[in-house]
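Chemokine interleukin-8-like domain-containing protein
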Amino acid sequence: MSRVFLVLGFVLIMALYSDAMPLALEHISKPESCCFDFFSGKIPKIKIQKEVKTGPNCAQRGVIVTTPKHDRLCVRP
């Protein structure tokens, strides 16, 4: 009987741990939110639809810009 409770306890701990992981990983920058190659040309301000700063955990700071032609352009701030 004590083995059954021991196994159920381990299953409960694993279930609680697996539910907590996505919440813990939310604050880690994803590779999609970092820039590795930067666009060196000029982008007219009128063409910029959206801009998002890269995360603080990225190796290089940058801004991800969305334009009508491009979904994702990395530029230096």
